[in-house]
Every structure is written in structure tokens, then in C-alpha cells.
Amino acid sequence: MSRSGPPNARDLAMSAAVDHRQDRLRRSRIDTTDQGLSLLIGIGLVVAVVNADALLSGLLSVALAIVLVSWYYKRFAGSHLQVSVRARPRRIFPGQPTELRVEVRNPARLPLPWLRVFVHLARRIKVEEMHVELSPIDAVMPLPFSLGGRQVVERKVTATLEQRGLHQLGPADAWVSDPFGLQEVRRTDPETSPLLVYPRLHAITADLQRTLPIGDRRGHSFLDEETHYLGPRAYQPTDPLRRIDWRQSARRGELHVKTYETVATAATALFLDPTTARLPWEGIDVEVLERTVEITASIASDLIKRGQAVGLYVTGVFSAVAGRRAFSYRERPRTGARQLSRLLEALAQLRPPGLFRDLPRIMIEEVPRLPYHVHVVTIAPYLTKDLQLALLRASRSHKTYFLQTGEADPEQDAQVPPGVRPLHVRAT
């Protein structure tokens, strides 16, 4: 299996340490060579001056000046060079162009007439009108620069990516050469910036049986969403005890409850199982995984655009968006474009969970916490015995749907339990 995603912090630290050690050894060898060459030229210049040889003295003086300038550039040129790589926009869909901005800043007064910058990018990136060199783990984009003292130069190129995920732009290697092109010195800027590629969205519609009106409808309803606080009012016998405002009750001498703006909103909780193998040793089916992620993202986008509240529960998210629960993402149903952005961000960073199949456990933990009106939609490549049991338990309290994204095998797949509806997805 090929390695996916950027290298971790330990790999980057080890690589930087090795490069630094090799750079020090190379510098020490170059220093020794320069010192020997300068000494020979100096001795020859003294002999030429003593013998009153003007031509030889002039040639050796020019050679000594070139060697000294080259040595000076090798020691000091580019020592404070700053290279930054940014993408605008930083969040794109597959195939959507983004502008890569490579900025080189020279804070020193020493000009840099010959400078080459090698920017490390995602391996599958495509850059317009630029040659990109591929390596086993990334792609390298070379860019020539010429900077004066205390100058800032920016280059802009257009790039596209077809692979979803959180990609890193950088680090950048700068090769600084003296004006004569005799020696090159490598300077590495370890700064990186993220580029997030969302899953591909398809024009589909999920056929869910709607028991609530779609979208927000002001008015009287038995369903309250605690998002818009209105204030306290006197307690009534039909009010739930959890709504009692104890501070206002103590202040006013009688029971008061908190009131919220009443809305009626259909809600759906998506439970995603990204495990693509029925057996651990079968490996990872990348095609099935990507199809599962894209279908989930498309369903979430369709429901949110229709005004529904959508939540996502999935295992295999290895990033900061997982929050306190490592390797899993749990987002309760909410509405709005911001919620869709959160869900797409989590799905973009989803990786195969390996041997662990934790979705049944997550369903057993999270489904009882959902309000009874929330639809439970489970999406998985295959239906296992553990997932069958979790679906059966969920169907006792919620309207539950199941969508299989892999090829069905009646001999190996478990049967959909009674009470669980098949989810039909239509192209629009």
C-alpha cells in the first residue's frame, strides 16, 4: 500500500537533522578547499608582485577577489532568507483551481542574483505551465528568483488537486549561488501551510421519509431547539423540569422556566463506517472508500441545502477536528452552511481506520442521546454482525436507514434487521 498523507512530525524532524548534518559536513569541506585555494593565490600574488609581473599580478588579484566574493556569499548569503507558500483559496473541491503564492523575502542588504527555490507539494498536484519533479512521497516545483537587497518577490502559479485530504505546502529549499555561479549553498525554510481538498460532491437526493416540515417554520410546535434564548416565564405543569431557571425562581419567589424560540426542523444523524474490508487481511479498497466518503458528503450537502439539520459520526479522522475523542468525529445535528463546512472538513481528512471497526460502539453510545425525531442514517460498505446489532437497537427508538456502498454478498453480509429501511439515493 502506498503511503498517503503528509509525513508526520517525527519524520520531518529526522529528515531535517540529517540534512543539517550533511550540510555542515559539506560546508567544512568547502571551507577547507577555499582556504587552500586562497592561500595558493595569495602566495602566487606575492611572488608576482616581487617579480614585478603586472599581468600576472592583475590576474591573480582578480582571481583572489572572485574567491573572496564567492566565500562571502557562501558564508552569509541567504542566511536570513524567508520563503513562504500560501494557497488562495485554502479550501477547494477536487479539480478546482487554486492560486499558489510563493513569496521570497531577503531582509539582508546583500543581493541574491542567482536563487533557485524548490517547493515541496502534494505528489498528485498539477501546476499549470510549470514542470514539477516527482519523488516517491511528494512533488517538487522549482522556481528561479533574483532578489536585490531588502527586497520581496512573489510568484503566482495556478494548481489543481484531484485527491481529497489535508495537504501540506512546503517546506521550501533555497539554493543560493554567488554572482559567478561557482558555489551553491542550500537553505531550508521548514514553514508549511495547509491546503484542504473537500470530497467530491454529486448531484443526488436522499429519499428520507419526512415526518417534520423541511426548514425553519416559526410558530407553535412541540419541538424546541435550544439555540435562541428568549427569557424566563412562569412555570406550567406541562413544562419539563430541566427547563426550570433556578436563579430566576429564587429571585421572583416562584418557579420560572427558560424559554427558547420555537422551530420545527427535520434532523438527520449520519453514521459512517469507512472500513472497506470484511476481513482484516483483505486490506483497503480505495475505490470503495472514496465512493463511500463522496456519497456521505453528497447526502449531507443535499439535506443541509434543503434546510435540514445534519450531524456526522465517523471513525478514522486523524486530525485536530476529532477533538477530545481521538480517531473519531462526532458532530450533533445542526443547520447552515457553516455546519456543512465542518462536515466536509472532517470527511476530507478521513483515512482508513485499519483493523478497528468502531462504528457499532459509537452508535450504541450516541443514538440514545439523540432526540427521538432525528433520523439515523448508517452508511457502510458492508453490513457486519456488530453493525446489524447496532442498527437493530437504533431502530427501536429512531427511524433508521441503511445504505450499503460496497458490492453485496449474501453469503458474507449480514441481513438488514427488521424495522431498518433501505436508503434510496437518486441522481438529480
Q: Give unreliable regions as ranges.
A: 1-10, 211-225
Instruction: Please state the average pLDDT score.
Output: 81
CATH architecture of the largest domain: Sandwich
Classify the helix fraction into a percent range: 25-40%
Placed side by side, the strands forming the largest sheet appear as 18-17-16-19-20-21
- Overall strand count: 22
- Looking at how many chains there are and whether they match, the oligomeric state comes to single chain
Task: Note the gap between the termini.
Answer: 36 Å
Rg from C-alpha positions?
Answer: 32 Å
Tally of DSSP helical segments: 7
What is the CATH first-level class name of the largest domain? Mainly Beta
CATH third-level topology of the largest domain: Immunoglobulin-like
Strand content is 25-35%
How many domains? The number is: 3
Q: What coarse outline follows from CA principal-axis ratios?
A: elongated
What does this structure look like?
The chain is elongated, with a radius of gyration of 32 Å. The strands form six sheets. It has a six-stranded mixed beta sheet with strand order 18-17-16-19-20-21, sandwiched between helices. Strands 6-7-4-10-11 form a five-stranded antiparallel beta sheet. Strands 1-3-8-5 form a four-stranded antiparallel beta sheet, with no helix packed on it. It folds into three domains: 9-197, Immunoglobulins (Immunoglobulin-like, Sandwich), CATH 2.60.40; 224-262, no CATH class; 265-427, von Willebrand factor, type A domain (Rossmann fold), CATH 3.40.50.410. The chain is 29% helix and 31% strand. The chain is of the alpha+beta class and 428 residues long. Mean pLDDT is 81; it is low at 1-10 and 211-225. The protein has helices at residues 9-50, 54-76, 246-252, 286-305, 337-348, 359-366, 385-395, and strands at residues 82-88, 91-92, 98-106, 112-121, 126-127, 133-134, 139-147, 151-160, 165-169, 172-177, 184-189, 193-197, 204-206, 224-234, 256-262, 267-272, 309-315, 328-334, 375-380, 400-404, 420-422, 425-427. α1 packs antiparallel against α2, α4 (286-305) runs antiparallel to α5 (337-348) and α6 (359-366) packs parallel to α7 (385-395). The two termini are 36 Å apart.
